[in-house]
Structure formats: C-alpha cells, structure tokens
C-alpha cells in the first residue's frame, strides 16, 4: 500500500508506510477521532499507569487488539514493552506483513506524554 509521509509529504510505501500507520493507530486515543470514535488504542491512557507487569500485559493486549482491528496488513506475533521512565515506554513489534508474506520488526515506537515519537 502507498501513502504519504505525515512529516514531509513525500510518498511512502511498504514497511515504512505500515510503521507510520501502526504509530497513528496506537497513539490515537479511542474516542478522539470525530468521524470514527472507535479508531485508535488505549495506549495513551497507559502512560500514567504503574510500570509493572500488570501494565506491561495491558499494553501488549491493547497493542495486539488495536492492530488486529485497524491494521489488516500486519499479523502481530510478539509485542515487547520497554519502560524508559515514568510516563514513557517503547514498543517493538514482531510480525508478518500480510501483503508480502515477509517477517518484520517494527522498532522505535516510543510513547512519551500523549504523543508518539517515531525514531
């Protein structure tokens, strides 16, 4: 699938477009998109949760659930959560690109405050 880079307006395709879409889905709070209130994930609400194994499991479940609904190109196989400091965590997602059949690893999915930073 082809798209547009949200930062510079240039064309995007392949895994780069997929990573941008994943970041948009996961960083959008459910209920915040006017024409589609169900779009997004619960991840923004997890930023202030204790950084423990309960929160880690919730983040993994929220990530896999949101991507199963909103990103049909990605088959999630593993989600890793890295707590950076209070109010900040990073994700690494292993999966399969359903368009190409190739394995992929999405990294640099950093959530800080209520914003997503794609490194």
Automatic annotation (TrEMBL):
Gene3D superfamilies noted in UniProt: 3.10.450.40
Residues of the IraD/Gp25-like domain: 13-81
Pfam families in UniProt: GPW_gp25
InterPro entries assigned to the protein according to its UniProt record, in alphabetical order: IraD/Gp25-like
Protein name: Baseplate assembly protein
Classification of source organism: Bacteria, Pseudomonadati, Pseudomonadota, Gammaproteobacteria, Enterobacterales
